[in-house]
Amino acid sequence: MTGNAVLLPDLAATEAFAARMARALQAPLAIGLVGDLGAGKTALARALIQTLAPGTRVKSPTYTLVESYALPGLQLHHLDLYRLRHPDELADLGLAELTGPDAVLLIEWPGRGGDRLPALDVVATLQREAAEARTLDLVAATPAGQAFCERLRIGQGHQSVGDETCGPVQKVTLVNGFD
Ligand SMILES: Nc1ncnc2c1ncn2[C@@H]1O[C@H](COP(=O)(O)OP(=O)(O)OP(=O)(O)O)[C@@H](O)[C@H]1O
Ligand SMILES: [Mg+2]
């Protein structure tokens, strides 16, 4: 935790926050979604994508590893690396083609990609606090991530923002998922 955690009391709160994130997106950007099984990573990604493209069917990339969406002004690639057996398999996914100036990456289980993944701009960590409550902790790891956090804060409108932006840019070390 960085002290910047947002409390999301239920799924609707997660979806509302994901909608804010959607409105703050600007390509290129890579966001890591970290958290245990069932923490809500896919739920957050789904709401984010559906904010930008209402009615889009968003299935979990659990088996396909990547699901791509052509959205207004950006290509969004939603990855779930849980089933990756080795970071080398990322090459088979055509990761190089998924990056570019108009690409936004949402990456579940980014630790499994090791250093083969592009640098994450933001790490969003979801933690289950109760049956429906989650906390979301956002850390900016690059200036682009910091700029995203700034837009997120500005998009908050008149509600109290507290400390719930990403704070200063931090170096992020992900735990490799194969231990
Ligand atoms: N506040 C909340 N935010 C997100 N999901 C919630 C919340 N409350 C309940 N849920 C439920 O928790 C589950 C989260 O599942 P989800 O598939 O998003 O997890 P995940 O983190 O992607 O897991 P995995 O690592 O297996 O991919 C969903 O069934 C969702 O409805
Ligand atoms: Mg998931």
Q: Which helices and strands, and how do they pair?
A:
Blueprint: E1 6-8, H1 11-24, E2 29-34, H2 41-52, E3 66-71, E4 74-80, H3 89-92, H4 95-98, E5 103-108, E6 122-128, E7 134-140, H5 143-154
Parallel strand pairs: 2-5, 2-6, 4-5
Antiparallel strand pairs: 1-7, 3-4, 6-7
Helix pairs in contact: 1-2, 1-5
This protein binds adenosine-5'-triphosphate and magnesium ion (MG).
Your description of this structure?
The two termini are 22 Å apart. Helix 1 packs across helix 2 (41-52) and helix 1 crosses helix 5. The radius of gyration is 15 Å and the shape is globular. It is 26% helix and 23% strand. The chain has a seven-stranded mixed beta sheet with strand order 1-7-6-2-5-4-3. By secondary structure, it is of the alpha/beta class. The protein has a single domain, classed as Rossmann fold (3-Layer(aba) Sandwich). Adenosine-5'-triphosphate (ATP) is lined by residues 8, 10-11, 13-14, 35, 37-43, 60, 80, 82, 108, 132, 134. Magnesium ion binds at residues 41-42, 60, 80, 108.
What's the short version?
The protein is α/β, with parallel strands linked by helices.
Sheet with the most strands: spatial strand order? 1-7-6-2-5-4-3
Number of domains: 1
What is the arithmetic mean of pLDDT?
89
Please name the fourth-level CATH homologous superfamily: P-loop containing nucleotide triphosphate hydrolases
* Strand composition percent: 15-25%
- Along the chain, the helix and strand elements come as EHEHEEHHEEEH
**Number of alpha- plus pi-helical segments:** 5
Q: Nearest-angstrom radius of gyration? A: 15 Å
The second-level CATH architecture is 3-Layer(aba) Sandwich
For the report, how would you describe the main beta sheet? 7 strands, mixed
Beta strand count: 7
Poorly predicted regions are 157-162
Termini separation? 22 Å
Bound ions, cofactors and other small molecules, one mention each: adenosine-5'-triphosphate, magnesium ion
Main CATH class: Alpha Beta
The helicity comes to 25-40%
- What coarse outline follows from CA principal-axis ratios? globular
Under CATH, the topology can be stated as Rossmann fold
Class per helix and strand makeup:
alpha/beta
